[in-house]
Structure formats: structure tokens, C-alpha cells
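Q: Here's a chain of 148 amino acids. Please give me its 3D structure as C-alpha cells.
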Amino acid sequence: MKTIVVYDSVYGNTKTIAEAIAGALPGEVTLQAASGADASGLEAGDLLVVGAPTQGGRPTEAAKGFLDRLSALAGVRVASFDTRLTAKWVRIFGYAALKIAAALKEKGGTPVGSPGAFFVQGKEGPLVEGEVERAAAWAREIADKQAA
């Protein structure tokens, strides 16, 4: 199984989460920044994980650009994650992970698990304590579901 983890990061928090996810996934794992990411080598049974910070209820422009460039994902397993503020008012606008998940499914990907949500303190971070470990645990859950 081949895995590609694609992320965009504005202040470094989402990159840290993406690194934790990539490090916890088994097999051949490639970590790519969204601005230059290429997932064209994925085949049925492979895994694509895409994440971005939530900005205005959406993923960043670089993440959206990657999703727009993405070709059909028939048979590819997909998962999404985001970083977000802990403030309750943010729910009004929505979250990047849900929009990324919808875009991946629209391209024909098969969702594996629920979108991951990882929290930052304030607009620029840092990450809430324990989020890196939680991201690695989320990735292991995704891998377990992928193998099932």
C-alpha cells in the first residue's frame, strides 16, 4: 500500500500535524506540500490523506488548488484533517476537513474514518498540548480501517 499525505500550512501547525500523521502510517508514505503535490501515482487500495488549516470555514487556497488539480480517485482510500481554533463561534463557518472530505469523495475516493480535527491556540498557534500525539493515534486508526 502506498500512502501520500498532502498538507498546506500557514503558521507551521498543520505541517507538524501532517508530519505526525505521516510518521504513524505504515508502508511507503510520502509527505507533500499542497502547492506542488502530485497524487497521480495512486492506485486502487492506496491511501491519500489531505489536510489544511481552517480559514474562514474553508481549506486554504493551496489545498483547494490541489483538490481542483486532482484526477479521479476510483478505488483510492481517502482521509482528511484540519487544524482549527477551539472557539465555539468558529462552528458557524464550518471546517476545512469536512470540505476536503467532500471534495475527495466527489473525485471518487472511498472515505476511511472520520475527518480529523486538531486544535490550535489562537490564530497562529501553537498547537494545543497533546494534539501531535492525537494526530498519530488518528493516523493509526485510519491505517487499521484501511487494512480491514
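Q: Can you summarize the key feature?
A: The CA atoms of residues 39 and 100 lie 15 Å apart.
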